[in-house]
Amino acid sequence: MTNYVHFDADGRIGGSTTGGAPEGTIVHGFPFFLQGSWSGETHYIAGGSAVPRPQITPPVPTIFPATQDYTITGVPDGAVIALDGAAVATADGTDITVSFPEPGQYQIAIDPPFPWRAAQWWVEAT
């Protein structure tokens, strides 16, 4: 049996099917097919190939003095940055600098536009 993924015009993988993928068929609202098996969580379709979705890498270290700013690089334009579950900023494609008012643990979450993968991690200001 042959596996196919189905995807939309933006390259979002909507799932997979086994067997034929007749031209013009729409599966779960996704009209395009590519032979192979990939997860939409980790890949998307670009230029007729499955490629890894880019991801944001949390800065190291994640434990630092509360008096020190925390800088996040590589955040794509349009990404929403949340601190402890509350949206605090929208990225403009430049580095994001976060200050913490007092020592403690803080959760940082970034919800970027597709095809980027969302990221979430904890930091500790001491």
UniProtKB/TrEMBL annotation:
Protein name: Uncharacterized protein
Organism superkingdom: Bacteria
Source organism (scientific name): Roseicitreum antarcticum
